[in-house]
Amino acid sequence: MSSEVGAARGYSANKGQLLGRLSRIEGQVAGIRRMVDEDRYCIEVLTQIRAARAALDKVALGLLDDHARHCVIAAPADQQGAKTEELMAAVGRLLH
User: pTM for this structure?
Assistant: First the structure.
């Protein structure tokens, strides 16, 4: 994981949209917590968990796309191999 301070990120252009999605996901998770607190039916809780996971997956795919376009393709030629390996490692972590 890179810790470049002040570097522009691929998602910078749509950061507001990304933060909005994450806020909605936070709301979904809070709703799941309430459902458990209220002893709601297991299948209903599981359905909401799946919805929250799907929303997180969508955010992750968007970040991967932004990273591929901004950080890999736009990288200097001598860094593209390393950036591609970094991207593929991130994809692998998301799949497991």
Answer: 0.80
